[in-house]
């Protein structure tokens, strides 16, 4: 198991504060365009499909697969950055934690976890599926 | 309506410095401007259009026009799409000239990340108060691991190998040995590249470009002015530009915006990839070149690894001589924005003024491509087709 990089707390805005409040309750919320029924990422209050504010928030299942990843070897400690495709269909940047970096692979199943930042904000990360 | 033949590159200059401890950013901009004007044989008072991007200090054109004492500017453009900006500026300048908005456009780039000790590639980079930043910056995206993730996916989908990527650096190093200003002049082998330290899987140190100070400039003029200059002028034949992004979470890192900017440029110029005698391809990393070559149509998508192998990009050996100054991989990458220097070497090739060891014989048509931002996620792409005045 790798030593964990210290993830900083995200910058908050009026547009994303609800997302981060839900994260503190252990929920990964994914926005869905109500006009088209399609999920999108990253979270915002305007649908990139229709440019309307007709957006709802849906709690993600927490299951996903690794689309791509890289181990940052020049950082101390090393860390795994990745794009993970959620079961809902959208692909998001994250870190893969609690894993053997050398055993990661594209297509690998991962599951949602939360990292507690020093500022007390929980942020979504992923670990290999159990 | 087209810009083909409406504008010409009349003068170029590349700053010889690679570390500018004793010069300010504004001073570097002014020095490259003076160099390009002298090359063209044009006075600064003739400049009536000024183009710059995010590397210019202060309020961009408003600050630099005052610093340089440009008195007759009537057209300004500070479009900033990262390292692709300056290739895009050629298209915008040519359009402005075609519309009569200006006749002599100056484009400058300069900076000093080395002198300022910037951890260009390995420090997590944000893009200010952009709405996407809170959802990515916390996870430690750096320039190098963003490109590494593209390379990793390209390898997964197409079987591209580290050895194939290494050939791109090998070719650049063959060219750089002839450039006295290049930071890395030693010829390297595939083995040298793949055995260099891993920075972010699968990119090794030698898959990465250099970090350098310096800059460059060029002058774009109307056809009428070009005819009356003594200097060989290079014709602007076509230009395309395109944004590419996260696409609402439908991420695909295996291709670049060149897939869209390239065809626009080729169509405007009335030529095809097969017609190109030389190509300057943005080379922040080896993977940048490989994906861009595929997207511009020099080979089939997924076949970039085979295309770049066995010296195919080496001048005098391969089918597509590229970055004959050594490019960003070996020569320089001023202020982490390599688009402008791509244009300079294309102009040298078309003027028959590249180093004799790398000069393409009878070079009639050339392409320059710029990439900005980060590959596949928030990138600017711009392509220009340039030709000899009689092309």
Could you characterize the architecture of this molecule?
The complex is a heterodimer of chains A (130) and B (391). Chain A starts with 16 loop residues before the first helix and ends with a strand. In chain A, strands 5-4-3-6-7 form a 5-stranded antiparallel β-sheet. Helix content of chain A is 6%, strand content 38%. The model of chain A has no long low-confidence stretch (mean pLDDT 96). Chain A is built from 1 helix and 7 strands, in the order αβββββββ. The longest helix of chain A has 8 residues, at 17-24. Chain A has one helix at 17-24, and strands spanning 29-33, 55-59, 63-72, 79-86, 91-96, 109-116, 122-128. Chain A has 130 residues and is mainly beta. Chain A has a single domain, classed as Beta Barrel (OB fold (Dihydrolipoamide Acetyltransferase, E2P)). Chain B is of the alpha/beta class. Chain B has one domain (7-117, 213-388): 3-Layer(aba) Sandwich (Peroxisomal Thiolase, Chain A, domain 1), CATH 3.40.47.10. Chain B is built from 12 helices and 11 strands. In chain B, helix 5 packs across helix 9 (286-296) and helix 8 (258-269) packs across helix 9. Chain B is globular.
Question: What's the quick description here?
Answer:
The complex is a heterodimer of chains A (130) and B (391). By secondary structure, chain A is mainly beta. Chain A has one helix at 17-24; strands at residues 29-33, 55-59, 63-72, 79-86, 91-96, 109-116, 122-128.
């Amino acid at each position: 198991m790798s030593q964990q990089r210290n993830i900083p707390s995200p910058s908050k805005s009026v547009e994303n504060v609800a997302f981060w409040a839900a994260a503190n309750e252990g929920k990964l919320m994914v926005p869905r365009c109500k006009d088209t029924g399609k999920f999108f990422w990253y979270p915002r209050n305007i649908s990139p499909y229709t440019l309307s504010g007709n957006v709802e928030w849906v709690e993600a299942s927490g299951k996903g697969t690794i689309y791509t990843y890289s181990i940052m070897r020049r950082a101390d400690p090393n860390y795994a950055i990745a794009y993970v495709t959620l079961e809902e269909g959208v692909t998001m940047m994250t870190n893969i934690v609690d894993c053997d970096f050398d055993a990661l692979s594209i297509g690998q199943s991962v599951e949602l976890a939360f990292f507690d930042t020093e500022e007390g904000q929980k942020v979504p990360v992923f670990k290999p599926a159990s | 309506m087209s810009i083909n033949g409406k504008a010409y590159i009349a003068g170029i200059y590349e700053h010889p410095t690679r570390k500018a401890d004793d010069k300010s950013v504004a001073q570097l901009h002014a020095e490259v401007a003076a160099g390009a004007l002298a090359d063209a044989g044009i006075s600064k008072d003739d400049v009536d259009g000024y183009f710059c991007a995010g590397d210019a200090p202060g309020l961009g054109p408003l600050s630099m026009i005052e610093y340089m004492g440009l008195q007759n500017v009537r057209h300004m453009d500070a479009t900033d799409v990262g390292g692709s900006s300056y290739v895009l500026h050629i298209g915008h300048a040519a359009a402005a000239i075609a519309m009569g908005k200006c006749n002599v456009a100056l484009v400058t780039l300069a900076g000093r990340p080395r002198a300022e000790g910037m951890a260009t590639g390995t420090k997590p980079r944000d893009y200010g108060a952009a709405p996407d930043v809170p959802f990515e910056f916390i996870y430690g995206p750096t320039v190098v691991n963003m490109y590494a993730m593209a390379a990793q996916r390209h390898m997964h989908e197409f079987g591209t190998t580290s050895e194939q990527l290494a050939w791109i650096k090998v070719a650049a190093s063959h060219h750089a040995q002839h450039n006295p200003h290049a930071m890395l002049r030693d010829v390297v082998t595939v083995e040298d590249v793949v055995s260099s330290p891993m920075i972010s899987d699968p990119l090794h140190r030698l898959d990465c470009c250099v970090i350098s100070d310096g800059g460059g400039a060029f002058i774009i003029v109307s056809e009428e002015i070009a005819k009356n200059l003594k200097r060989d002028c290079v014709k602007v034949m076509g230009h395309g530009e395109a944004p590419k992004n996260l696409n609402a979470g439908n991420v695909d890192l295996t291709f670049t915006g060149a897939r869209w900017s390239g065809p626009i440029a080729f169509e405007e110029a009335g030529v095809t990839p097969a017609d190109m005698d030389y190509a300057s391809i943005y080379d922040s990393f080896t993977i940048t070149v490989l994906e861009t070559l595929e997207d511009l149509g020099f080979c089939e998508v997924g076949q970039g690894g085979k295309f770049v192998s066995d010296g195919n990009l080496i001048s005098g050996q391969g089918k597509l001589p590229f970055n004959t100054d050594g490019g960003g991989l070996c020569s320089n990458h001023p202020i982490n924005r390599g688009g402008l220097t791509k244009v300079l070497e294309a102009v040298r090739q078309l003027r028959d003024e590249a180093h004799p060891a790398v000069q393409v014989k009878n070079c009639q048509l050339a392409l320059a491509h710029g990439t900005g931002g980060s590959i596949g996620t928030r990138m600017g792409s711009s392509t220009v087709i340039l030709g000899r005045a009689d092309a």
